[in-house]
Amino acid sequence: MAEARQVPEVAAPAVAQGNAAYAWPTHPTYMGTDVQRIDGPDKVTGRAKYSYDIQRPNMLYGRIVRSPHPRARVVAIDLTMARQAPGVKAALAVVEPNAILMFQGEEVAAVAAATEEQARDAARLVKVQYEVLPPLTSVEQAMSPDAPKVFPDGNVREGAAEETGDLAAGFKAAAHVVEQTYNTQVQTHVSLETHGCVCEWDGDKLTAWVSTQAVHGTREGFAQALKIPQANVRVITQYMGGGFGSKFAPDAQGIICANLAKQAGAPVHLMLDRKEEHLATGNRPSAYAKIRAGVSADGMLTAFDAQTWGTGGAGVGAGFPLPYIYQFPNRRRQHKDVYINAGGARAMRAPGHPQGCFITEVLMDELADLVKLDPVDFRMKNLPPDAPDARWRAYFPIAAKLFGWDKRHPTGDATPGPIKHGFGCSANRWGGGGRGSHAHCEILPDGGVIMRCGTQDIGTGTRTLVSIVTAETLGLPIDAVNTEIGDSLYPFSGGSGGSTTAASVTPAIRVTAVKALDALKAKVAPKLGVPPADLVASDGRLHARNDRAKGMTWKEACRTLGAEPIAVDGEWQPGLSASGTSGVQMAEVEVDTETGVSKVTRLVCVQDCGLIVDKLTAESQVIGGVLFGVNYALFEDRILDRNTGQMVNPNMEWYLIGGPSDVPEITAHLVDQPERGVIGLGEPPAVATAAAIANAIANATGVRLRSLPMTPDKVLAALEQQRAGGTR
Amino acid sequence: MKAFSYVDAANEKDALASLGTERNQVLAIGGGMDLLGMMKDYLVQPVRLVNVKRLDATIARTPDGGLRIGSAVRLIDLIEHADARRMYPALVELAEQVGTPQIRNAGTVGGNLNQRPRCWYFRNEEFHCLKKGGATCFSVNGENQFHAIFGEGPCHIVHPSNLAVACLAYGATFRLAGPSGAREVEAEQYFQMPDHNLYAENVLQPNELLTHVTLPAPMAGLKSAAYEVRFKQAHDWPLAFATAALVMEGQTVKSARIVMGAVAPVPWRANEAERALAGKTLSEETAGRAALAAVQGAQPMSRNAYKVRVARTAVTRAILKAGGMKVV
Predict the structure, then answer these.
(1) Separation CA B316–CA B295 (nearest Å)
(2) Where are the alpha helices (DSSP H) in A227-284?
(3) B77: left (phi > 0), else alpha (psi -120 to 50), else beta?
C-alpha cells in the first residue's frame, strides 16, 4: 500500500551554527525588505508561460478515460471506435482486463487528438465494460464489522499504541474531564493550475513541460516509469500555479502523456480538468478523534486518551500529530488508518498538522472553559519550554496585543440580536529547513551575471529569492541578475515540499555567488593593488573595504576577465539555514445565529521563519496560508454520495472556496530571526487558522463545533441542541 | 461536444422558424451562461443553437405604468436600469446577487428564468437521475443538504433562478411566442413541479420562446424587498431567499405576496404567510409569525432541515426590509 508522498522531514538544528565563509550579510540591502516579484509583470500580462500554455509544433491534446465507479473490475476495453474518431492520433489502454479499479477517477485508457474537443469526444468512444463491485463509501462503513473486505490487508490498519506516563494517575489528578469526538473533512488541493504536462520526444529523448514541485524528482520518475536513462529526460517548469504537496512526480497522467506522444510521434498536451483534480490527484485525509482529557483544578493538563482514525482513500494512510504542541504528561493514543474507495491522499500543505491542531486546540478551549481560565492564559500554563523553534510564550502576548484579545468576552456573546461576535486563538509548529541544493554562477566579461539552479518557483517567489541573494552578494541591483531556474538541465535542487525550498536554495545561491565573487576578486585584486580579501562588492562597484575610491565599477571589473567568464558551482552548506518554526493565530468571527452563517472578519498571525529573505513574498505566504485555513474551516469538503461513493461536488461550484468577499482582514506579523538562518514558511501559516476560527465561533455562540467544515447546518444544529438543553 | 449548427436569428420570427419540437434538440442561446456548461458536460447535445440575443433587449414602460423587459436584456442592464430599481427593487437586488460580474455582464433575463437546475446529481454525468430519464432521485437517500424542503418529489431540485422569485412576487406575466402565435402566462403558472413535468421546469415548449417579462404597475403603497442567505459571500448559490411585496397603508399590511427561492422545485409562494400578514401592523413579531407560517408545510429531507430555519429567517428579513425596518 502506498504512503502519501511527502518530502521527508529535514533533520536540521533549530539555530544555524554559523558559517564564517558564507555568513549572511549583517547589514543587507535587499534581504528582509519588501522586494516585488521579478516575474510579477510577466505573470499579470500573460507573458509567463505555464505548462498549460506550452504550444509545440503539431501538438496533440491528450484525454484520459477514467473509471466512473469507485470500485470495479475491468472486463474489456475497446479502443476501436475511439481510434476512428476525428482527429485521433493515438489511443491506449492504461490497464489490462481483470484489473480491479479502487477509486472513481482511476485511469483506464487514454487518447490523443488534434484538438482538445476531439480528444474529449474520442475519450467517450472508448468502450469500457466494467463489472461494478460494491464500494466502501465512508469511514463508518469501512470500519463496520460486516463490511466487505475490500483491501487485501483489511479495510483498517491499526497502528501501535503510543503511551507515555501514567494515564490512570493523570485522570485521578483531574478535576474536570472532557470526553468528546472531533473530526475534520477530506480536503482536496485545488491548485489553480491543474496537474499535467506537455511531452515531446526527440528519438529516445523526452522533454516534458510539467506542472511540478520537483523538476529533478519528476525527471527521475519519468525515467523509471518509461525505463529510459535519467539523462534522456529533461523536465521544465518555468511557471507553476501551485501544488500544495500534490505535484512531486509525473503521476499517471505524465506517463500516459509520454506514451501517447510516443505512439502518435507528436508532442502531446495533457492537462487535467477540475473534476479530475478532485478525484485523482490527492487530498488531505480526514481525521477523527474520540478523546478523554483531564485538567487539574489549577488549570494544568493531566491526561489525554485518544482513539483516532481517518481515511486517506484507497490504500493511503491518514496519520496526524496528536496531541498537538501542549503538554499532557500522561497520554495514550491508538490510531487506525481506514481505507475507502476514493482517491488517495497525498502530502498537503503541512500534512497532518491542521487536523491535529484543530482537534487539540478545540479541546484546549473546552478544558479552559471548565477551569474558567482565559484561553491564552490556559495555553501559557501548558506550553512546552521555550526554545528557538518553540516561541509561543513570546508570541501569544504579541498576538494578543495586536488583536485586542483583552476585549474578548467569556464564551457566548451576550449582545442582544442574532449576530454574535467571538474571538479564538490557536498555535502552530512546523519543521522546514534546508538540504542539498546546487547552483551555478557565471560572471560574464560584459558584466552580466547568470545564476542557475534547478529549483522551481511553485508560486511562492523562489525566482525572486534567487535574484535577491545573488544581487545582495554581488552588490548589484536585483534586475542585473539573470536568474534561471525550473529546468532539470540546471544544477540539482530538491522538491518544493516541507517548507524547505528557501532554506535549501538560498544558502546554495549565497555560497555560489560568494565563490563567483571571490574568483572575480582574485582577477581584479592585482590590478587594484588590494589583496582579494580586502575587496568588497557594493553599489555596483568592487573596491577596497576601507577606501571606496580605490576600486572600479562592476563592468570595469568584469572587463578584466577578457574572453573567459567566471563559471563556478556551489552547493548548500550548513550554517546558513535552520529548522523549526512556531506561530500563533487569533481570529474574530461574526455568526448569524438565525442562518448559521459564520464569517471570519479579522485574523492576526504571528509567525517566525528564521531569517526573512523577502518580506513581501513572506507576508504573501502568510496571507495565502490564512486563506487556505479559512477555506478549510468553513467551506471545503469532498462530498461522496453515501450510496454510490461517487463525488457529488467535483467542481468549484459546490466544492466551496471563498472569494474576495469572504476574505478577512489579515494582519501578518512576521518575526525576523536573522540569527537562525533561513527556514521556510510555506506551510506553517496554514495550520492554526481553522482551530482559531472554531474557537471564535464557540466564543461567539456559546456552542462548540467539533467538526469541520463549520457549515450553517452544523451551527444551527448545535444552537438547536443548546436550546434543547443538550449541551453545555 | 456534438457538432451543432448555429442560427443567428435576426428577429423573433427567424428564431421561431429555427426551433423544433423535440426537447433539447434545438436550443435558444442567450448569454450561454448555463447552456455552454450543459453542453461541455455532455448533459445536452443539441443539433442546433439559435442565438436570441438580437431579439428584444429593451426595457420599456407599458401603457398601464409597468415595465416590459425583453428576454435578451442582460442582467447588468436590468441592474443599471433606474426605473426598474425604483419600481421593483427586489428584482434588481436579486439580479445583483447572481453569480459573478462576468455572468451578470453576459447572462440574460430569459436565460436566468430558464436555466436548468444545479442539483449535483443532475449535473454529474455518473448519476442517471430521474430528471435525465433514470429511475432514481439520488437525493432522497443521498446528499440532500442543498435540496428542496417543499414538494412531494419525485425529483427534489430547487429552482435555480433568482429573478423567477421576484417575478412571482410582483405578479409578472411571461410572453411565450410559438409557431401559432404568442400566449401570456402568469409567472406563477409558468414554473412546474416535477410531478407535472419531470424533464423541464416550466411550460415552455421546445418550439416556443420566452420573449418578454411584463411587470404590472406597482400598486399604491407597494413596498418590496428581497433577502438572500448565502454561505459564501462571493459567487455562491443561496441557501434560501425570499421576496416580500407588501401593500402598505401606514404601518398596516393591506396585502402581501411572499415568495421563497431555493427551497422547492419552483419559486415557492407562501400563501399562509401572506394571510398571516394581511391586516396586521408590521413589526418584528408579525414578520416572524408570517415567516413561521411560510415554512409550516416544509418537509425537509435527511440533511436539509437547517434550510427550514434559513428560509424562515429569509422571509422574516425580507418582510422587515420591505417595510423599511431594521433587519438584523
Answers:
(1) 11
(2) 251-264, 274-280
(3) alpha
Q: Is cis: bond before A526, omega within 30 of 0?
A: no
- Residue contact A68–B232, C-beta within 8 A: no
- Which grid coordinates are listed for A52? 498549460
The total number of structural domains in chain B stands at 1
The per-residue pLDDT for range A626-648, each reduced to its tens digit, is: 999 999 999 999 999 999 999 99
Rounded-to-integer distance, Cα B187 and Cα A79, Å: 50
A13 pLDDT band (50/70/90 cuts)? Answer: confident
**A648 contacts on B by Cβ (under 8 Å):** 120-121, 124, 142-143
Residues of B in contact with A121 (CB under 8 A): 1-2
Listing DSSP states for B83-142 in one string gives: HHHHH-HHHHHHHHHSS-HHHHHH-BHHHHHHPPP--HHHHSTT--BGGGT-SB-TTTTS
**How far is B4 from chain A, CA to nearest CA, in Å?**
13
Phi-psi region of A282 (alpha: psi -120 to 50; beta: other; left: phi over 0): left
Q: What angle do CA A470, A473, A476 make, to 5 degrees?
A: 75
Residues from chain B contacting residue A647 (CB–CB below 8 Å): 124
- Distance of CA A627 to CAs A117, A566, B65, B290, Å? 34, 45, 49, 39
Distance in angstroms (rounded) separating the CA atoms of residues B281 and B248: 9
The answer to the question of residue B54 being in a domain is: no
Asked whether residue B253 is domain-assigned, the answer is: yes
Q: What CATH number should be reported for the domain holding residue B317?
A: 3.30.390.50
DSSP states of A684-696: GGGTSHHHHHHHH
- Whole-number average pLDDT of chain A: 96
Indicate whether this complex's ipTM tops 0.85.
yes
CA-based nearest distance A640→chain B, Å: 8
d(C-alpha A319, C-alpha A309), whole Å: 8
Residue B123 lies in a domain: no
Cell of A74: 475491468
Quick one: cell of B28?
A: 435558444
Tally A–B CB contacts below 8 A: 98
Confidence of residue A728 (pLDDT cuts 50, 70, 90): very low
Best residue of B235, B239, B241, B326 to probe chain A, by most A CBs closer than 10 Å: B235
Q: Which of A648, A653, A661 is nearest residue B143 as measured by Cβ atoms?
A: A648
Domain limits for position B264: 222-322
Tell me if A355 sits within 8 A of A187, measured CB to CB. Answer: no
Sheet with strand B26-29: strands edge to edge: B5-8, B48-51, B26-29
Q: Do A661 and B233 touch (CB under 8 A)?
A: yes
Closest residue of A to B240, CA-based? A595
pLDDT of residue A4: 40
Residue A2's pLDDT is what?
38
Interface of A with B (CB under 8 A): 68, 104, 117, 120-121, 124, 417-419, 592, 594-597, 599, 634-635, 639, 641-644, 646-650, 653-654, 656, 658-662, 711-713, 716-717
Report the pLDDT averaged over residues A522-532: 96
Which domains does chain A show, CATH number per domain? 51-134+195-272 (3.30.365.10), 283-432+578-723 (3.30.365.10), 435-571 (3.30.365.10)
- The mean-pLDDT minimum among A5-19, A126-140, A221-235 falls in A5-19
In sequence order, what are the residues at sequence separation of 6 or more whose Cβ sits closer than 8 angstroms to the Cβ of residue B121?
A: A641, A648, B127, B129, B137, B138, B139, B142
Q: How far is B241 from chain A (nearest CA, A)?
A: 11
Best mutation site among B36, B40, B115, B143 for testing chain A: the one with the most A CBs within 10 Å? B143
Q: Is residue B247 part of a domain?
A: yes
- Contact yes or no for A318/A285 (Cβ under 8 A): yes
DSSP A445: T
Say if CB B253 and CB B280 are below 8 A apart: yes
